[in-house]
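can u do me a favor
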């Protein structure tokens, strides 16, 4: 329920939002008992900011779960010796706006190098350099230089 500058939300929703509130924001809320239910009165701007953070977190956790599931499928395919299926699964995992987990990038780089598919390895490593932060980016950049060297050497 919206009351101008404040929202009244059920206790359950408030609990979901709590981790996304600063202590200052938390103390701007008040609890009210209405018809046997607990409601929280929260400033609308605080609610909207916390709701966005909670929704973003939920989406990130969903992406993580999907990423983990695909990584596990890729690992299973590798254990069965089906390298092409593993590559396909790992490629799906790094497609588009992927969750920033290193496993699929690492495995693809290794599998492409083992099969001497240097163009594919280079493509994966370039994307990894864009996706990851400093320390990991350096690892992928070093591996990228090595892949470029191996590619040039293989053409001779």
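np, heres the sequence
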């Amino acid at each position: 329920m919206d009351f101008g500058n404040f929202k009244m939300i059920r206790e359950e929703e408030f609990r979901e939002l709590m981790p996304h509130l600063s202590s200052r924001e938390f103390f701007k809320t008040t609890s009210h008992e209405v018809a046997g239910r607990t409601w929280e009165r929260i400033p609308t701007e605080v609610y909207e900011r916390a709701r966005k953070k909670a929704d973003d977190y939920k989406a990130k956790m969903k992406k993580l779960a999907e990423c983990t599931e695909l990584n596990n499928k890729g690992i299973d395919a590798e254990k069965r010796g089906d390298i092409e299926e593993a590559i396909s699964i790992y490629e799906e995992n790094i497609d588009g706006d992927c969750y920033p987990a290193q496993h699929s990038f690492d495995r693809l780089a290794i599998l492409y190098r083992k099969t001497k598919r240097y163009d594919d390895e280079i493509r994966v490593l370039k994307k990894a350099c864009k996706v990851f932060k400093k320390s990991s980016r350096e690892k992928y950049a070093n591996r990228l230089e090595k892949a470029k060297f191996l590619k040039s050497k293989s053409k001779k």
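The first helix runs from residue 11 to 17. hope that helps!!
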